[in-house]
Amino acid sequence: MIAGDVYKMESHSVSNIVQRGGTILKSARSKEFMTPEGRKKAYDNLQALEIEGLIAIGGNGTFTGAMIFGNEYGIPTVGAPGTIDNDLYGTDYTIGFDTAVNTALDAIDRIRDTASSHDRIFFIEVMGRDSGYIAIQSGIAGGAELVMVPEVLTPISQVVETLKQGWSRSKSSSIIIVAEGDEEGSAQEVADKIKVQVDENADIRVTTLGHTQRGGTPSAYDRILASRLGLGALEGLIAGQKNVMAGIINNELVYTPFEDTIRLPKPINEDLLRMVKILSV
Ligand SMILES: Nc1ncnc2c1ncn2[C@@H]1O[C@H](COP(=O)(O)OP(=O)(O)O)[C@@H](O)[C@H]1O
Ligand SMILES: O=P(O)(O)OC[C@H]1O[C@](O)(COP(=O)(O)O)[C@@H](O)[C@@H]1O
User: Fold this and answer.
1) Residue-wise over 5-35: b if at least 16 C-beta within 10 A, else e?
2) Tens-digit pLDDT string for the chain (281 aa)
3) Which of 36, 29, 254, 219 has its CA nearest to residue 141?
4) Where in the sequence numbering do the catalytic residues fall?
5) Atom 15 in ligand 2: which residue has the minimum CA distance?
6) CB atoms within 10 A of CB 137
7) Contact 139, 276 (CB under 8 A)
8) From 91, 127, 138, mutation site for ligand 2 pocket: most ligand atoms within 8 A of C-beta
9) What value, to the nearest 5°, has the Cα angle with vertex 233 and ends 28 and 26?
């Protein structure tokens, strides 16, 4: 919008992309949109092109920007939740999350082969800037011994305790999932803190999955979710919705005001963390 890099799209413009990751639109984070001058440029371009409505795809930041822009210039915007972090109030799942979880899971499964063959402890860092959703889901599905998430403090003493309990039951390998935003630090930092507290013969390794989780062929679930939410956002806009995000809750399409999606937390299900502990015994 700021660069005026706009072209008309028809149905065929999206043919043969359903199986691709990333974005053909090349829309991305923009520092300039955070300034009134940047948003003015965007508005002027939209005016010149007679564009009367917007669909914003992204997370909390995107919807904050969209809300500010809507308040300043009155252009109606409907959001579609696109973030691998799944940390948006107003939808059970966000576009990209399921693919990211499955990518992380595939990596965890592969790492498990080394962990169990060579009796090692692996700390695996998954993405989640402020959110433990990828960690908890990939951790449960990957049979992790412990999952560390930003929403709930897991003290280092608890990690040590979990490892020691495993050894007392003759468990020779362990997998601990650390969400990027965990309070105890990165997986490397957590591993460094653990090393000095456990048996010096413990063979500890760290893997950071990084941007592997942020691309690749989308899962069937994500393709269907993106199709439903894209259509939901478009039909909402045409029907006169504005400053809301299309989401799916209990399999129903719902619209939630941007204000709520931004302000309200989407708490992690702590019962799932409890389940990890039970299942890892
Ligand atoms: N306070 C704000 N005012 C205007 N634009 C914003 C604001 N916060 C975020 N944005 C816009 O949204 C973009 C995406 O925000 P970011 O937090 O990085 O990602 P996400 O949408 O995934 O949460 C930013 O690069 C910026 O262009
Ligand atoms: O690619 P960058 O800018 O390093 O961002 C990585 C960050 O983006 C996230 O993957 C979320 O990104 P999206 O909201 O765009 O899916 C975080 O989990 C991670 O911290």
Assistant:
1) eeeeeeeeeeeeeeeeeeeeeeeeebeebee
2) 999 999 999 989 999 999 999 999 988 899 999 999 999 999 999 999 999 999 999 999 999 999 999 999 999 999 999 999 999 999 999 999 999 999 999 999 999 999 999 999 999 999 998 999 999 999 999 999 999 999 999 999 999 999 998 888 888 899 999 999 999 999 999 999 999 998 888 899 999 999 999 999 999 999 999 999 999 999 999 999 999 999 999 999 999 999 999 999 998 888 888 888 788 77
3) 219
4) 85
5) 83
6) 22
7) yes
8) 127
9) 20
| Interface pTM, i.e. ipTM | 0.95
Name the residue of 23, 41, 55, 62 to mutate for ligand 1: max ligand atoms within 8 A of Cβ: 62
Is the CB of residue 81 below 6 angstroms from any atom belonging to ligand 2?
no
C-alpha 55 – ligand 1 centre gap (Å): 14
pTM: 0.94
Domains defined for the chain, CATH in brackets: 11-96+218-263 (3.40.50.450), 99-215 (3.40.50.460)
The answer to whether 88 and 245 are in contact (CB under 8 A) is yes
